[in-house]
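Lecture 7 notes: from sequence to structure.

We start with a single chain of 149 residues. Read the sequence below before looking at the structure.
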Amino acid sequence: MPPTLVLPPTFALIAGLAMACLDRFVPIADLVNSPWHWMALVPATAGLLLTLWAAVGFIRADTPLEPYKQASALVTSGPYRFSRNPIYLGMALLLAGFWLWLGSLSPGLVLPAFVVAIDRRFIRREEAHLEERFGERFRAYRASVRRWL
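Now the structure, written as tokens:
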């Protein structure tokens, strides 16, 4: 896989900044008001823990976390039993928590855009690489575990 200049956490950061700008400058309909915005801690904490758990799986398998490096192992344990992309799912949950914290409708428009961007920019290329590298093992895994949830 060719190197990429913008890594997935950068996409998440850009999405978060876009959400904050939309909330500040185009706050369509308040959905969550204080003190209910504290509910944001639930998906944000779940996202952070899921991301860390998934990263630990890569570290234990001694395979790189960077999407542009060649995988040395096919990780199918831990959170990878439920999602083929738990790190990206964790990032999406973090952004969902941020959206709840902000409270207005407009930042929520960024979340599907983030998911589509990650899918098109990283996931499709990663899955093609994994299929090429691990063949039938990856195809069997792909058939039994959903991409997101």
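The chain has five helices and no strands. Keep this in mind for problem set 3.
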